[in-house]
Amino acid sequence: MYEDTKIVENDLFMKEFKIYKQIKSFDDLKKLNQCVFLDNLDPNLFNAIELNLNSLNEEDLKTSGLRPFNEIKCYELKSNPGLLVIPNPFENGYQRFLIKKCLYEYHDPPNKTNLDLHMKRDGNLWTNALKCQNFGEFNKLRWTTIGYHYDWTNKVYNELDYTDPPVDVAELSRVIAALIGYKNYKPEAGIINYYHLNSTLSAHQDHSEKNMNAPLISISLGSSAVFLIGTTTKTEKPVSLLLRSGDVVIMSEKARLAYHAVPKILADPEIDNFFQQNNEMCQSRKWYVSDQEWNNFYNYIKINRINLNIRQVNNND
Ligand SMILES: O=C(O)CCC(=O)C(=O)O
Fold it and tell me: Which of 96, 199, 312, 315 measures 20 to 30 Å from 304, CA to CA?
C-alpha cells in the first residue's frame, strides 16, 4: 500500500513531494504560500458540505468525543470531488484520549505492528519505555494494524487474520461516516501510523479494499503534516494541505483512489491549543485523561505525529 515505485514521466506529484520535503519549519511553509491551512479555507478552492444528523443524535456525537453538530464543518476540495476535510471536530479532551489509546493500547497483541516482523514483544511497549526511561524500542514502532490485518507482502487483507477494531475507533468512524451520509459504514480495518519529524510517506493509492464505495477516514493527531492529495495519475500537480491535530480527511467517491503522500512532518508551534481541556467538564466523561497522566503522552506527541485511518474492506451484503 505504501510504496509506489512506478516510474512516471512528467511526475508532478514527485516534484511537489520534493519541494515540501525540504521545508524546515512552519515559517518556511507559510513563506512558500501554497499549502492550504484548514482554518482559513479559500471558497474558490472548497465547497461547504452539508452534514447529516439523520441517523444520529447529539448524544452519539458527544460520546464519540465530537463537538456539537452545529460546530462541525465539512468541506470538499473543488478540484477533487469526494475529497472531504473536517477541520478538527473533536473536543480537545478527546484528542488526549485517542492519543493515549494509540500510544498505550492499540499496538498490544493481537494487533500487529512492524516490530513483530523481527522481534517478539515482551510486555506493553509504552509501559516498558516509561519504566526504563528509554524510548529507543518504542520509537521503532511505525505502524499498527487493527481489524482485518493487512498483509504488506502480498498487499491484501487477510480474511483469517482479524481482531475486532477498538470499540471507540469503530464507533467514532461510524459516526463520522453517518455525518457525511454513509449510514451503513462498517469499520473493518485500520492502520495507525506513527511518524517522527523526519518521517515521510511516499505517494500511493489505497486499492486493497474490495469496497471502493465506502469512504476512507483518516484522523491526524499531534505534530502537523503536509498532506499531498492528487488524482488517479501522478502527472497532475497535487494540492497540499496542512493537517493539524484533530483534523479529519475523508477520501470518498472519485477521490477514494487518489494518490496521496506525506512529504513533511512539522512540530506545531500551537500544539498546546489542541489539548487544553476544561477539567470540570471532562472529568465526567469516560475518556477523561488527567493533566498528570497526559504529561508523558504530550512529551511524545509534540515531536511525533499519529495518523489513524479506518476503512471498510468488504462490500455490504
Ligand atoms: O498519514 C496520513 O495522513 C496518511 C496515511 C496513509 O495514507 C495511509 O496509511 O495509507
Answer: 312
